[in-house]
Design goal:
The complex is a heterodimer of chains A (470) and B (330). Chain A is mainly alpha-helical. Helices cover 70% and strands 6% of the residues of chain A. In chain A, helix 6 runs antiparallel to helix 12 and helix 8 crosses helix 10. The N and C termini of chain A lie far apart (67 Å). Chain B contains 13 helices and 4 strands. In chain B, a hairpin with a 3-residue loop joins strand 3 and strand 4. The chains are: A mainly alpha (470), B mainly alpha (330).
């Protein structure tokens, strides 16, 4: 069997980055959730909020740790698999990634320790401030990374001199055309993910008849946040769709599953297709008539552009983009359905007693992760064959490393990451099964951080804020 | 203003800090395998708990500084050291989660995470030595692109440097435990310092001699900078001799300081030999540098943040000064 370094480099990057993105998504979502919960606790002094805070902080801390170690890998991987990409893109996105590293360091060094270990030691107000800073820090980190990735989608602010990239306008490298739409899209995705995660665990407690008050409150809050975030996401998602249709038409052509330059009129909406890239047609398509025109052109008879509008050598692989996009889209429809039903049940005051709905919430617990990963697959496979849109093809960016070496490291990544995720899931399930009442008042794990700063620094802070300590 | 020189100085500072700081906690990890008593293992781990992740920040900074300021060098070195870098980051990752998971695990599992922690440390240290050896022996490049084999780094000379670096890290780690450990842990540190220091000095000597044979550039450097390099070597031997007499002495910190001095001298010698190349003997830092705007962005961030990181690290080390309590920090 011939091992193709291009395929292997892409599979390896896809695997490691997919694994990694689970954890930052969780950190961004849960950090924002914890911030709101602690704010509510400070305002109402209701002990249930404190219980919710302590319980979710434990899971947040462990996820943060795995996120940090899997993130270190990525900072080297640009060069390991895609040396030419690193050489061309380094001058543009290197500084952004450097600033992300510094942000992350500050977040960890400055505030995560207080957040995880200091609840009893620094007093509630200072602790709330630390939680806010951690939540803000995760979002600033995301901003840098999204800026770098958006530059790969819509590069700006550079010229070429002697075959090297020269940055002409630093602001336009950071603030490139798609950044400020893709960033809110990702942040909302993280908030939605966190909300469904929280609501799903609460619903499971209600179904088991355990931790009744905790369960009710988290189901209610999780669904409340999800409702707001899903509503915002409808708007941002639509905005991004338009933006990408403008900047990367081939991505959206592939995402909708049409081949011909103009679809029939009225256009159907494709749900399942078996695309045949070689013959530029679908072998099979399951579609709803007229819906394509309605959704995609907002008219009764509008036509949708197909992938043949893009020259063959510039086309992405339709199957990957289509299924990435449709997985995200279908999960989004399910989420929309859930939050709509939740509003109805809330009005009826049956939110906590409708068992089929609680069961649906439990099933939806990982839905946000699935949608986020599928969305990233749309973004990244849809950008192909480019790694930097219009500037560098993925095939030309591959490192001079033989396929055999890439395959062995891929296997090593799979084995070791399998160990990580297994351990993480075992510990997370154990925490969930143990329930909120037994959650300790400080986190047991922290990916980093100064597990121990707790004693000294906190005592010091408690001594300087004696009024606030309890 | 010579921006590439400043960026190179920043990258060199990051590497030097990384080697000296993470060096001792990797060495401590390697020593953990030798300690059968679980309570002592807890004390050993607790001694590095507060600093290890701050130390690793410098590794990431090194990579990112290369990417932003010397993209050409980054694009040559990453594929050249493809295998050792991946094995290193995986080992460091394994080490990182072991910290987390050992406190969560029950039954026999803490032992499992201790072993992964220790093996992760040993393998990561060896991979760093392989990379150093590969750099000194010289990577094969054609037209500013890596054109050698990914297995080049497993030649005899890099393997020799790998063993030397691991031995050096164990000396650093033992020095650290000499400072932080009480009773049994300190005794372990003394035993290990007595045994490993002479081995490290011997290996370092052999490595330096062998380097001149595998790489003509190093021979030329010896000829060009004979006096400073001989001075560095003599200081290294003097530091090693004092270290041997300081083991078990009144000063807890002296062996660690001397081991750090050994590393500082080694780094100074290496810089002297390879300057001004960013890919040793192949590519100078000016040839590999990125545009001025990128360098300015990187350096601005570095100038603002480096003092803060250093201050924070100093603070963390100060907070945890003195002996590690036998019952942990709680």
């Amino acid at each position: 069997m011939k091992l193709d370094p291009e395929v292997l480099a892409r599979v390896q990057f896809a695997f490691t980055v997919t694994f990694h993105i689970i954890f930052p998504t969780m950190s961004i979502g849960l950090a924002a959730f914890l911030m709101v919960i602690e704010g509510l606790w400070l305002k109402t002094k209701d002990p249930v909020y404190l219980e919710i805070y302590r319980f979710w902080m434990g899971i947040f801390a462990m996820g943060f740790g795995v996120g940090v170690v899997t993130g270190i890998v990525l900072s080297f991987e640009f060069g390991l698999g895609f040396a030419k990409f690193a050489q061309i893109a380094g001058p543009a996105i290197g500084p952004s990634i450097g600033l992300e590293v510094l942000t992350a360091f500050f977040l960890e060094a400055g505030f995560l320790g207080i957040m995880l270990f200091g609840l009893k030691r620094v007093g509630p107000k200072l602790h709330f401030f630390a939680t806010c800073m951690v939540a803000l820090g995760t979002q600033i980190s995301a901003s840098w990374i999204l800026s770098a990735n958006s530059w790969m989608q819509t590069p700006d602010g550079i010229t070429f001199e002697n075959g090297r990239v020269v940055v002409t306008n630093w602001l336009r490298v950071i603030h490139n055309p798609s950044w400020l739409v893709r960033l809110p899209h990702m942040l909302l995705a993280a908030f939605i993910t966190g909300s469904f995660f929280v609501a799903g665990v609460g619903a499971w407690y209600l179904l088991c008849g355990k931790h009744e008050i905790f369960g009710r409150r988290t189901v209610s809050l999780g669904l409340g946040f999800a409702t707001v975030a899903v509503a915002c996401q409808l708007f941002v998602g639509d905005l991004l769709y338009g933006k990408m249709l403008h900047y990367q038409p081939s991505k959206m052509q592939a995402a909708e599953g049409f081949w011909e330059e103009n679809s029939p009129s009225p256009a159907p909406y494709n749900w399942i297709i078996i695309p045949d890239q070689t013959h530029q047609r679908n072998r099979f398509a399951l579609a709803t008539p007229v819906l394509g025109s309605l959704w995609l052109t907002h008219s009764l008879r509008g036509r949708v552009a197909g992938l043949k509008n893009t020259p063959r050598d510039l086309q992405p692989t339709m199957g990957m983009v289509f299924y990435g996009f449709h997985t995200m889209f279908i999960v989004a429809i399910l989420m929309f359905f859930i939050v709509a039903v939740s509003l109805w049940l809330r009005v009826q005051q049956r939110l906590f007693s409708t068992r089929w709905f609680l069961r649906a919430l439990v099933i939806m617990t990982p839905s946000g992760f699935i949608a986020t990963i599928a969305g990233w697959y749309t973004a990244e496979t849809g950008r192909q064959p480019w790694v930097i849109w219009g500037i560098l093809r993925t095939a030309d960016a591959i490192s001079p490393v033989p396929g055999g070496a890439m395959l062995s490291t891929l296997i090593a990544f799979v084995v070791i990451y399998a160990l990580f995720i297994t351990a993480f899931l075992i510990f997370a399930f154990r925490m969930i099964r143990r329930g909120p009442e037994d959650a300790p008042d400080h986190a047991e794990a922290s990916g980093s951080l100064v597990n121990a700063l707790r004693t000294q620094v906190m005592d010091h802070a408690a001594a300087t804020h004696p009024g606030e300590g309890r | 203003m010579d921006l590439p020189l400043f960026s190179a100085a920043f990258a060199a500072l990051a590497v030097a800090l990384y080697v000296m700081l993470d060096g001792f906690d990797l060495g401590v990890g390697a020593l953990l395998l030798r300690e059968p008593d679980e309570n002592l293992r807890d004390q050993i781990i607790n001694s590095i708990m507060p600093m290890w992740d701050g130390n690793e920040t410098w590794l990431v900074m090194t990579g990112v500084a290369l990417l932003a300021a010397f993209p050409l060098a980054y694009a040559i070195l990453m594929p050249a050291f493809y295998l050792p870098i991946i094995v290193m980051v995986l080992s460091l990752g394994l080490r990182g989660v072991s910290f987390d998971f050992r406190s969560q695990a029950v039954g026999q599992w803490p032992r499992f995470w201790d072993i992964t922690f220790s093996l992760g440390s040993i393998v990561a240290a060896s991979m760093q030595g392989l990379i150093l050896g590969g750099l000194l022996q010289g990577v094969t490049i054609t037209d500013h692109e890596f054109s050698g084999s990914v297995f080049d780094t497993f030649r005899p000379f890099p393997i020799l440097t790998a063993v030397s670096v691991l031995a050096g890290y164990i000396v650093l780690g033992s020095g650290w435990l000499h400072l932080k450990g009480t009773a049994a842990v300190r005794a372990l540190a003394e035993r290990s310092l007595r045994r490993v220091t002479p081995v490290f000095v011997g290996l370092a000597t052999v490595t330096c001699i062998a380097a001149a044979f595998v790489q003509p550039g190093i021979k030329a450097a010896w000829a060009a900078h004979t006096v400073p390099l001989v001075m560095i070597a003599l200081l290294f031997y003097a530091a090693s001799a004092i270290l041997m007499t300081a083991i078990g002495g009144k000063s807890d910190i002296l062996p660690l300081l001397l081991a750090l001095l050994q590393f500082a001298l080694g780094i100074a010698g290496t810089v002297l030999v390879i300057f001004p190349d960013v890919v040793p003997f192949r590519l100078t830092l000016w040839d590999a540098s990125s545009s001025a705007v990128s360098q300015i962005c990187l350096l601005t961030g570095a100038i603002v943040v480096t003092p803060m990181i250093l201050a924070y690290s100093a603070f963390a080390y100060r907070v945890f000064r003195g002996k590690t309590p036998e019952k942990g920090w709680e």
